[in-house]
Amino acid sequence: MSTQKRISAPRTYNIKRKQDTWITRANPGPHSKGALPLNVLLRDVLGITRIAKESKKVLHEGKVFVDGKIRKDLKFPIGFLDVISIPITKKYSRIVYDHIGRLTAIECNKKESDLKIVKIKGKARKDKKYQLTTNDGRSIIVKLSEGKKYSVGDSLLIKIPSQEIIKLLPFKVGATAFITGGKKVGSIALIKKLMGDKVSIIIDKEEHLTIKDYVFVVGEKTMELKLK
Questions:
Q1: Which residue segment(s) compose the domain that 132 sits in?
Q2: CA 23, CA 21: separation in Å to the nearest integer?
Q3: Average pLDDT over residues 32-51
Q4: Do 89 and 132 sit in the same domain of this protein?
């Protein structure tokens, strides 16, 4: 199905649930369950269009870029830290979680729209190279001599759409992280202690405990990009 009932849409959708009956359903894609369809982002979150027909026209004209690539599918899935660029209007946005776990958009400048932070979810040796898979479905190939410094859980600051690695952001004590789930979703935290699958974090000088999967490193000491 290309649509679903608005009232039963994922909790990550930042929408008015009783406004209409139906809403666009996202296609399967690189992000986990809960990704926003591009139509919902343009209409309900960014307010660029009013109806799906308008979204379709804007997309068909090739005016919308996601992570530096033109996207024309109303149902293309949009997720955490994706960059939405509409150069003709000079509007650039990055997708983040708000304090109740909904995907929302914050403005970013043109310079930062060429950069993205991704999290390493898998690492495999391929012949004389390493393949790094990321939270947004990317496969980044690195030299064998360089591969050993990358670990699952680390983040990478990359250029988009080229995927050139600018900086490694290790998952370690002292790093700055964005919390992507749980009671502190949407918060910026400092990693205080690693305890297996649990992580002790500091938010506004208060210590909290969360699970490792919710901790997404976004900087060594401070955020590499504007996320608030």
A1: 114-169
A2: 7
A3: 86
A4: no
The number of distinct structural domains making up the chain is 3
Phi and psi dihedrals of 50, rounded to 5?
A: -110, -35
Mean pLDDT of 108-113: 94
pLDDT at position 81: 97
- Neighbour-count burial of 7, counting CB atoms closer than 10 A to its CB (0-12 exposed, 13-18 middle, 19+ buried): exposed
Distance (Å, rounded) from C-alpha 159 to C-alpha 131? 17
Domain match, 97 and 118 both: no
CATH code, domain carrying 187: 2.30.30
Give yes or no for residue 183 having a pLDDT over 50. Answer: yes
Decide: 154 and 194 in contact? Cβ < 8 Å: no
Predicted TM-score (pTM) of the model is 0.90
Q: Alpha-carbon distance 80 to 36, whole Å?
A: 10
* DSSP collapsed to 3 states, the chain: CCEEEHHHCCCCCCCCCCCCCEEECCCCCCCCCCCEEHHHHHHHHCCCCCCHHHHHHHHHCCCCEECCEECCCCCCEECCCCEEEEHHHCEEEEEEECCCCCEEEEECCCCHHHEEEEEEEEEEEECCEEEEEECCCCEEEEEHHHHCCCCCCCEEEEECCCCCEEEEECCCCCCEEEECCCCCCCCEEEEEEEECCEEEEEECCEEEEEEHHHEEEEECCCCCCCCC
First-to-last alpha carbon distance for the chain, in angstroms, is 35
